[in-house]
Amino acid sequence: MSPEQTSLAFRANSVCALEDSALRAAMKQATDTFGTKRADAFAPVADLEALRDRASAIRDDVLANLPMYVDRFVASATRAGAVVHRAEDAATAREIVRTILADRGARRIVKGKSMVSEEVDLNSHLEAAGMEVVETDLGEYIIQMEGETPSHIIVPAIHKNRRQVGRLFADRLGVPYSDDPQALTKIARKALREKFLSADAGISGANFAATDTGSLVLVTNEGNGRMVTTVPPLHVAILSVEKMLPSLADLPAFLRLLPRSATGQTITSYVSVITGPRKPGDATGAKELHIVLLDNGRTEILAGESRDILKCIRCGACMNVCPVYRTVGGHAYGWTYPGPMGIILTTLLTGMKKSHPLVDASTLCGACVDVCPVRVPLVDLILGLRKRKVREGFADPRERRGMEAFGKAAAKPALFALGQRLAGAFWPLVRALGGKDVAGRMPSPAKTPLRRRLP
Amino acid sequence: MSDAEMERIFLENAATAAAGTHSVSDTGDLLAALGRVVAIDSPVFCPGMTELEKAAAALFPVRAADYAAAAVTVEEVFGAVAETGTIVCSSEGGRAVQAGLLPAHHVAIVRRERIFGTLDDLFAAIAFAPPTNVTLVTGPSRTADIELTLAIGVHGPEKLDIILV
Ligand code: SF4
């Protein structure tokens, strides 16, 4: 994840992914399941379109007034007893978290699922400072043990099958091999329970932050989010600034949309609303609550033409329906956020120089736009980035020449027909030149072009 | 929505979310229901803070002083939401919300009049001055992180029973 890297190797990664039949089977099964479950979950919802409009309007309002809402959240959370820290960039956020933990002598840290902490690469920073950081979401626990990064924002270990997980647990935890998901879950429960009870601090993300009450909202299924935020004496929450909701009373609309879009559930097993640390008379909550608000380029995105991506509530629906994501999986994208939403966010957060190959990773079919619960105009945003890519000179000159040639040929039927014949004749050569790259895998043109087969 | 209608929807949705549901009319029935859902000799944590909890606590010979050591937590919760089949746990009044999280079995007692129709009704009631922790609980703890196969009881309870009084 080093920003110095020249550009993301999306094409090369995709070629590897395409050759991995286990990965493709897992991706297909997972995204198909999610797609069906999502549709089933929304079927009984009356006025879904009105609900999406409302949620979209709330997110628009948040973005239109973001600095005001962030200030309001800071004031409310502070009043509730939390300590709020503002982090301009990833390095600052990492250092703030490390300092909070180090100052209190915290060495054993349990962590809930947080894509923002992945974005700032928090774990390695804390580990370098000698702390033990244990991911407690089952999927994250699995990939942490394997030394991998998430391949999906909701189910991070979606690329692994039960036998791989069984072998991993047998190797690392010294337990008998099992490939039964229920048995593997029990093994993880036991190992992680000890970690929770002995942890010095818990780190979590947050799905939403209510600006009127200063509350953090965590939407989870396993219960690890609840553990991390209530069992250890110190709770550090890290979230990006755009997670604001004007009021806690706005939450129901999002609770109706997020779980249905993400996993096809009516609601997740747990929704925690945390308002400040434990207060006198309380028997729940961390004794100290620190909230790290990360900007990391959001203010700049807000001022630009792609700002609507900040409406995103990270449900993952757009990737589950994306034909590109479904085929190559999350790792091919090469950074924290995959899928249509990831193309946009990655390009904006890491820059065109690094991310321009991603901008092509969409067919612009619009399936993502159809499912996005808060109406992020994903296709328009990707098109906007493609224009920027050409403007900023990152487009492949061969592509430009090819398009110009195609434009000329398409205007003259005779020339077009000649082109088709030439392409047919020289196809083996084209394929050979393409080598292992995507061009080398394009199907051959039809022997008789469609134009001549039409009456 | 009538009260009876709300109750029916709540019980139906809670059952869909894989919670055990029981509906009783008085304290005597409550104790009988508890006797059925809780293995009588398992270590039970029961805060004994409300009338119903006090009655329930007397039932169990083995009482765990601490929820972390208990096999079962029996408690009266803040309320419920019909729309989603959810029970609502609150830290108000010095309650340990995590008591319903650590033991493998959570038995939640809900008074009928504490059922909210929708999530909006619930949040309208708490949004003005929320306590330190409000947790909405719908069914047992679950994950689908391994091959999207549902597994129950990851970090929280593997069993949730709701007794409506
Ligand atoms: S862009 Fe929309 S569909 Fe995609 S993750 Fe964000 S909210 Fe979900």
Question: SSE layout and pairings?
Answer:
The complex is a heterodimer of chains A (about 450) and B (about 160).
Chain A: H1 10-19, H2 21-42, H3 48-64, H4 66-79, E1 83-87, H5 90-103, E2 108-111, H6 115-119, H7 122-128, E3 132-135, H8 138-146, H9 162-173, H10 181-198, E4 201-204, E5 208-210, E6 215-220, H11 224-230, E7 234-240, E8 244-245, H12 251-263, E9 270-274, E10 288-294, H13 298-303, H14 317-321, H15 323-328, H16 339-350, H17 352-355, H18 367-371, H19 378-391, H20 397-410, H21 413-434, H22 450-453
Parallel strand pairs in A: 1-10, 2-3, 2-4, 4-7, 5-8, 7-10
Antiparallel strand pairs in A: 5-6, 6-9
Helix pairs in contact in A: 2-12, 9-10, 16-19, 20-21
Chain B: H1 3-16, E1 20-23, H2 27-37, E2 44-45, H3 51-57, E3 72-76, E4 79-81, E5 86-90, E6 105-110, E7 115-116, H4 119-126, E8 133-137, E9 142-143, E10 151-152, E11 159-164
Parallel strand pairs in B: 1-11, 2-3, 3-6, 4-7, 6-11
Antiparallel strand pairs in B: 4-5, 5-8, 9-10
Essential attributes:
heterodimer; A: 455 residues; alpha/beta; Rossmann fold; 22 helices; 10 strands; B: 165 residues; five-stranded parallel sheet; four-stranded mixed sheet; binds iron/sulfur cluster
